[in-house]
């Protein structure tokens, strides 16, 4: 999960990008990117409701193993 206003949306990790750029395309066609940093990878997250997202690892509150 991550903080979004007063909510804490969540999703499933689809990919962890250690080097380079991770990107997803929103339902409106916008491209959202995050550049991986040393020790702070970019994480692609798929969601059942809403757009898929991409976050840096430090932006995530918790990760649960499935």
From TrEMBL:
Q: Where is this region: Disordered?
A: 1-44
The record's section on Pfam families has: Hva1_TUDOR
Q: Residue ranges under compositional bias (Polar residues)?
A: 25-34
Q: Which domain of life is it from?
A: Eukaryota
Question: Which residue range or ranges hold the Hypervirulence associated protein TUDOR domain?
Answer: 1-60
| Protein's name in the database | Hypervirulence associated protein TUDOR domain-containing protein
Query: Origin organism of this chain?
Result: Paxillus rubicundulus Ve08.2h10
């Amino acid at each position: 999960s991550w903080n979004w206003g007063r909510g804490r949306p969540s999703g499933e990790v689809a990919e962890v990008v250690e080097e380079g750029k991770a990107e997803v395309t929103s339902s409106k066609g916008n491209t959202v990117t995050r550049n991986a940093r040393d020790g702070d990878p970019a994480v692609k997250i798929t969601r059942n409701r809403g757009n898929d997202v991409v976050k840096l690892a430090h932006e995530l509150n918790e990760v649960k193993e499935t």
